[in-house]
Each structure stands twice: as C-alpha cells, then as structure tokens.
Design a protein that fits this description.
By secondary structure, the chain is mainly β. It contains one helix and 17 strands.
Length: 220
C-alpha cells in the first residue's frame, strides 16, 4: 500500500471500499428468506406466513452499503419493503438510515434517518421508474459527518452533520425486510394490505458492505 502520509486521501476512501456480503442472519420466518452466497443474492417472500428480515452478522461503523433491488410486483398496498442501517432493530434509542418503499406507490422511495431513536426526517423521492420493474441500485454512504443516498449512481439526498447536532454514530447492521405497515397512520403511509397478488417477492443482488469497518459485537 502507498504510504498514507504521502496520500492522505487513501484513508478516507478506504471507508468506501466494499465487498460482497458473505453471510446473513435471518431474524424471523427463515423459511420466507433464502440466501445464495455464490450469486450474492437474497430473496424475501411475503405471504400468509408474513414476511422476513435479514441482516448482516456484524455491525459497521461508517462506510458504503449497496444492493441491486427488484421490489415485489402486483398490488403491494400496505407493505413496506426496504434496505436500511440500524444499530439495533426494535431498540428505542437506535441510530438508523433508511431506504423504504411504500407499497401503495411504486414510483417513489422514502429516505429517513434516526439519531438515538428520533426520526421524523422523511423525504420522498420520485424514482422515474417502477421499483418492481427490474433491478436498480440503492446506495447509502455514511461517514461521521455526512450521509448520502444514491439511486443508480445518482445522488438523491445528502445530509451533513451540523455543529452540536446529533448524527448517526452507533455501529449499525445492514437490514432488509418486508412487513405489513397497514396499521401505521391508519393506512395512510403504505396503504392498506390487500394481498390479492401474494406471494410478494423482493429480490436483492450484488449486496455490498464496507471492507474494514466491521466492529466487534457490543451486546452485553
């Protein structure tokens, strides 16, 4: 490797080197989620069993995370499918960075981020395509002072840390899931689940995580 003193930029760019995901944990309904390591692809199916959620087996502190995603086809009203970072799903003081698809609208995606359990930073982005029609690349670039969300290589949102403001800084897992969000805001967020086109299949491929930013588990 070149001497980092001569090339100060190499250290920063190291954050953004990635590698294919090697293994995943499945948090629930493992029979509804399949992982093929050889092709670096993951499938989640939502049907009468509910959905499933997969995640990386380690947390990462900063870096670039990406996947090619083809969202489920058909009437997906009520469903939320996604890819996101979270320090721990279900923890009330989690840090989190999201791409969320709202089943009632296939031509937008919502981004959001949380610091110590506080979100309310949603923004909706027109995709310019139907998210269920072929694969598109979704990327989160996260560092100590900025977050960037990119779709097919195009920056759609950038947030920079402001002085004295909380910013996501807890090590985070990469997660993805499909779940029925009909009950949120009385169905106004994702619509109400109809289910006429079940099973709904979300496909993830070319899933990439940072090289060298994984941290040891801090679970007590």
């Amino acid at each position: 490797m070149a001497d980092p003193v001569l090339h100060p930029e190499t250290h920063h760019h190291h954050h953004h080197q990635t590698q294919p995901i090697k293994e995943i944990a499945i948090d629930y309904t493992p029979e509804a989620c399949s992982h093929c390591q050889e092709s670096n692809s993951i499938t989640i199916t939502y049907d009468h069993r509910g959905g499933a959620r997969w995640r990386t087996t380690t947390r990462f502190l900063y870096g670039t995370f990406s996947a090619q995603i083809q969202c489920p086809k058909g009437n997906t009203d009520g469903l939320n499918f996604n890819i996101y970072l979270s320090s721990l799903e279900g923890d009330k003081s989690q840090d989190e960075i999201d791409f969320e698809f709202l089943g009632k609208e296939k031509n937008i995606v919502q981004t959001n981020y949380y610091t110590t359990g506080t979100g309310n930073r949603e923004k909706n982005h027109p995709l310019g395509f139907d998210c269920s029609n072929g694969f598109h690349e979704y990327v989160i670039k996260w560092s100590a002072d900025s977050i960037e969300w990119l779709i097919d290589g195009k920056l759609v949102r950038k947030e920079e840390k402001k002085d004295l403001e909380d910013f996501p800084q807890k090590p985070m897992f990469l997660y993805a899931s499909i779940w029925d969000a009909s009950y949120i805001d009385e169905g106004r967020w994702t619509g109400k689940y109809n289910g006429c086109d079940a099973p709904y299949v979300c496909l993830y491929k070319d899933i990439r995580v940072p090289i060298g930013t994984a941290v040891e588990s801090c679970d007590s």
